[in-house]
């Protein structure tokens, strides 16, 4: 299982925005609740279960809809990313600079594994 926790966003561009985060991993998508403001606090966890480990080497893709930005993280089975800020950027215009940040934690659990604290 891959567990992803969307913690918060920071410095998202725009006025009166209602950000939502979509997490795409191994063909599955999770969407957070819609929040308000440029520094939203989500604190939402999603779990994605798989029968085979092939896709665990894929990219976990985050999309912040309101900011029109995305961020990718690669991780390998057995590893974790804990409370890290990811830079969001416009995938269509890589020279446009930062479009905000999103703080996430994610880890891979095998059968019988305990999640990290």
Automatic annotation (TrEMBL):
Topology within the bilayer: Single-pass membrane protein
SMART domains per the UniProt record, alphabetical: FerI (SM01202)
Entry GO terms, CC: membrane
Places the protein is found: Membrane
Keywords: Membrane, Repeat, Transmembrane, Transmembrane helix
Pfam families named among the record's database cross-references: C2, FerI
Any GO BP annotation: plasma membrane organization
Domain FerIin span(s) in chain numbering: 71-117
InterPro entries for this protein: C2_dom, C2_domain_sf, FerIin_dom, Ferlin
Predominant subcellular localization, coarse grouping: membrane
Protein name: MYOF protein
Natural source organism: Grantiella picta
């Amino acid at each position: 299982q891959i567990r992803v926790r969307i913690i918060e966003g920071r410095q998202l561009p725009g006025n009166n925005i209602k950000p939502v985060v979509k997490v795409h991993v191994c063909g599955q998508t999770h969407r957070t609740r819609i929040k308000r403001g440029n520094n939203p606090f989500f604190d939402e966890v999603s779990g994605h279960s798989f029968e085979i480990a092939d896709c665990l080497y894929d990219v976990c893709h985050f999309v912040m809809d309101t900011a029109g930005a995305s961020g990718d993280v690669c991780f390998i089975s057995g590893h974790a990313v804990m409370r890290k800020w990811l830079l969001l950027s416009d995938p269509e215009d890589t020279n446009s600079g930062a479009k905000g940040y999103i703080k996430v934690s994610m880890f891979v659990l095998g059968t019988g594994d305990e999640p990290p604290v």
